[in-house]
Amino acid sequence: MPLNWIFSVRALEMKSSAIREILKITERPDVISFAGGLPAPELFPVEDLKKACQSVLNNVGPKSLQYSLSLGILPLRKFLAERLSRKESPLTEDNILVTGGSQQGLDLVGKVFLEKEAVVICESPTYLGAIQAFNAYNPHYVTVEMDENGMLIDQVEENIKKYKPRLIYAVPNFQNPSGITLSYERRKHLVKLASEYYVPIIDDNPYGELRYIGKDVPSLKSLGGDLVIQLGTFSKIISPGLRIGWISASTEVMTMFERMKEGADLHTNTFAQYVVAEYVKNGNLDKHIEVIKAAYGERRNVMIKAMREYFPDNVKWTEPEGGLFLWVELPQEVSATVLLSEALKQKVAYVIGKPFYPYEDKDNTLRLNFSNASPEMIIEGIKRLGKVFKESIAQPAKLKKSASK
Ligand SMILES: Cc1ncc(COP(=O)(O)O)c(C=O)c1O
Q1: Which domain holds residue 330?
Q2: Is residue 55 part of a domain?
Q3: Mutation test residue for ligand 1: of 182, 235, 269, 371, the one with most atoms within 8 Å of CB
Q4: What is the percentage of the chain residues whose pLDDT exceeds 90?
Q5: Pick from 39, 78, 171, 195: most CB atoms within 10 A?
Q6: How many domains does the chain have?
């Protein structure tokens, strides 16, 4: 007899991630996939991590296998405080809480700040994992459009006045999904607004260290101080399977995060924290970041060059200076969801843009990842996608004419 489960409203209202569903189809071995957000596995520092594991077991021993503090182990928090203080405002280990990846950071933000109808201002499009994490707390989203310099700040101000938001959520560096970076001027303006109206900013920053072109822009955290809560992660700069990220915040807010963290999972995996703390000793991390930056920067260039060659003129895209993604805009009337089935027939995949809008109200955009496929595969995949676009999207009259000459 089937059981008559009575689930919570929260559980019933949560949708499963559109991306997970799509990834099941797109990650077939014969498909060239630009769909995931995966780092290149061949670049994971396997040998150095092996040495780190061994050294932790030899030197830290049973302590590395024991329960540990909810805030995280001291050596890792000290390392992070020191590293972040180089670029950010000065921090101590008391400003750091180690999380199970940034994704847990987002959930803790939801737990601490959100509830039914609380308003979140975010970019449009925004990181779909944040929407998923926040959805458990039933907020209302107010989205702000972006141009090549990030969020349109006038819209932020209007919305702050109108909706009195609980927080502003932003991915200011090489945003997932658009690849757009918030400009310095706009960062200053955003932080000014946040302090004028007293709205905390969540500065979600998994990609800040992955810049291939241009110069770093001072972070929202360094400009906004205590009003900014920054989320960081080793997922893209060491490996996502380790599930080690962090929250950097003022001690006042940290107390709230610490309480929620305790209830959620007591603490992040002690052994993995020690392994990371061991690995990052002796400048390993900076060396590794240089290696992945060289590879991803090349893949980004290869993808953009191929897009210029193979995509039709009425398809637009962003050309990010870092991160893992670029964002494609098809003509208004074209559905990226419908085109995906055509793309899959050609054995190439992308992620549709729809789930990156909190109310899924736009369907002519898509995200491409350039970190996970080799340059050769990128060229081949973009060629196939270009063919799909050319065959499926009506060309503007001007182009049709010149093509038929
Ligand atoms: C903007 C953003 N925030 C958070 C995350 C989650 O990262 P983590 O692996 O640290 O949980 C991601 C992962 O892709 C991301 O793109």
Answers
A1: 9-44+286-392
A2: no
A3: 235
A4: 86
A5: 171
A6: 2
